[in-house]
Write a structure and sequence with these properties.
Blueprint: E1 13-14, E2 18-22, H1 28-34, H2 41-44, H3 51-63, E3 71-79, E4 84-96, E5 99-108, H4 117-130, E6 134-141, H5 146-154, E7 158-164, E8 167-173
Parallel strand pairs: 5-6
Antiparallel strand pairs: 1-2, 2-3, 3-4, 4-5, 6-8, 7-8
Helix pairs in contact: 1-3, 4-5
Length: 175
């Protein structure tokens, strides 16, 4: 396999306050409560999943993409000092226009919002992607979601004029 076609596999990442752990099905029990607030779905749509539904979803994610050219990399965020899970970050890595492209997303549970955790975790994720053969990082953000726009800006992404499902495509080219 050439370098651009090797799968990208999530590995644990550590930041000043967080441990980003590669997704495991067992995290669904705690994460169902973290992601259970309907306020999280205002901009991203959908409804909170039950523990059973989240376990099933995590099982599919852990199994990996059915497309061998696409890697699903998913992490949960553990706040070290509080020893609790507080959110997720993810990257779907596959072929793009100019090499490998990673579409990223982040979610922090309502009780932990406003503390810079999404920024810290997403910066670490983009850094991690920069150490792999990823050329472009992309995020799709609802035009009214100022907090996510601030996270994307802090990570060096800039809005483009492209829209996808009502969301603005933000992008950064990695060197």
């Amino acid at each position: 396999m050439d370098r651009l076609r090797e799968p990208v596999t999530a590995t644990d990442i550590t930041t000043r306050r967080l441990e980003l752990h590669s997704l495991q099905v067992e995290f669904a029990d705690e994460m169902a409560a973290v992601l259970g607030d309907e306020a999280l779905h205002v901009f991203i749509g959908g409804v909170p999943l039950s523990t059973r539904e989240l376990r099933e979803r995590y099982g599919r994610l852990v199994a990996g993409s059915p497309d061998p050219g696409v890697s699903w990399c998913n992490w949960v965020l553990r706040i070290r000092d509080e020893d609790c899970l507080a959110g997720t970050v993810q990257a779907t890595v596959g072929p793009g226009d100019d090499g490998l492209e990673a579409e990223i997303a982040w979610v922090v549970g309502v009780p932990w919002q406003g503390r810079g955790l999404a920024r810290e975790a997403t910066l670490a994720l983009v850094d991690w992607l920069g150490q792999r053969p990823v050329r472009t990082v992309v995020a799709h953000i609802h035009p009214d979601h100022a907090a996510s726009a601030a996270v994307a800006t802090a990570c060096g992404l800039a809005p483009t004029d492209r829209m996808h499902d009502g969301e603005v495509r933000w992008q950064r080219t990695l060197t």
